[in-house]
């Protein structure tokens, strides 16, 4: 699968971000800020 060249998150990094939320309990807002993305993006990933 080819990723988009300007995408901030790949499927792997999206999964890693959600795992940090579920396993370590880090807030989604903090994770989004660290990744440089909007809060909506990890919320969509969590819904998947």
Protein model, in words:
With 48 residues, the protein is mainly alpha-helical. The chain has one domain (11-47). Helix content is 62%, strand content 0%. It contains 3 helices and no strands. The protein has helices at 11-24, 28-35, 40-47.
How would you summarize what this structure contains?
This protein is an all-alpha fold and 48 residues long. Helices cover 62% and strands 0% of the residues.
Largest sheet: none
- Gross morphology: globular
* Strand-pairing-aware structural class: mainly alpha
Give the number of helices: 3
Q: Which secondary structure elements does this structure contain, and how are they paired or packed?
A:
Layout: H1 11-24, H2 28-35, H3 40-47
List keywords for this structure.
62% helix; 3 helices; mainly alpha
